[in-house]
Design goal:
- The chain is of the alpha+beta class.
- The protein folds into 2 domains: 77 residues, Roll (Ubiquitin-like (UB roll)), CATH 3.10.20.30; 71 residues, DNA polymerase, domain 1.
- 35% of the residues lie in helices and 17% in strands.
- The protein is built from 5 helices and 5 strands.
- It has a 5-stranded mixed sheet with strand order 2-1-5-3-4, sandwiched between helices.
- The model has no long low-confidence stretch (mean pLDDT 96).
Amino acid sequence: MSLIEISLNVNGISQVLRLDTRDRLIDALREGLSLTGTKRGCDDASCGACTVIVNGSARRACVTGVKTLEGADVESIEILAKGLKLHPIQTALIEAGAVQCGYCTPGIAMELKALFDKNLEASREEIIKSLSRHFCRCTGYEAILEGALLAQKRLKENN
C-alpha cells in the first residue's frame, strides 16, 4: 500500500486526505469523508450512479483516481439541498415521478447540474445525450427527461 496526501475542495470545504494511491474518488467521498450520497454501482463507469462534478464537469467517481485530484473542486450530491430545502433539480425529478428506488437519482441530478451550470439553454437533444450516460432500472426514461426539462425551466425562472 502506497499512501498519498491530497488537498482538494469538496462541496466548498477544503480537505486534506491521506489515501491509498489505488483509491478512487468514490472511496475518498464515501469512506474518507462519509459523503454516502454518491452511489457505487458498476465500478466501470457504465451506470452513472456515482456521477459527481469535478472542476465543473460531470465525472464518474468510480473510475476517477485520487492521484488526479490534487487541488480539484469536487461537488457531490450533498451540495444540492440546503438543509431541508431541495434544489430545483431534485424537486423537479420528484414531481415528474422520476424517482422510485432513488439509487440512480444522485448521479442523474449531478449530471444535470453540471450541464445546466455550463449551459442553462441546453437543447432537448443535449439533455437527452447527457442523460443517456445513466442507467435506471425502475423509473423509465420519459419521467427522467420530463424532470430534467422541468428543472431547466425552473432554473431559468430563478435566474
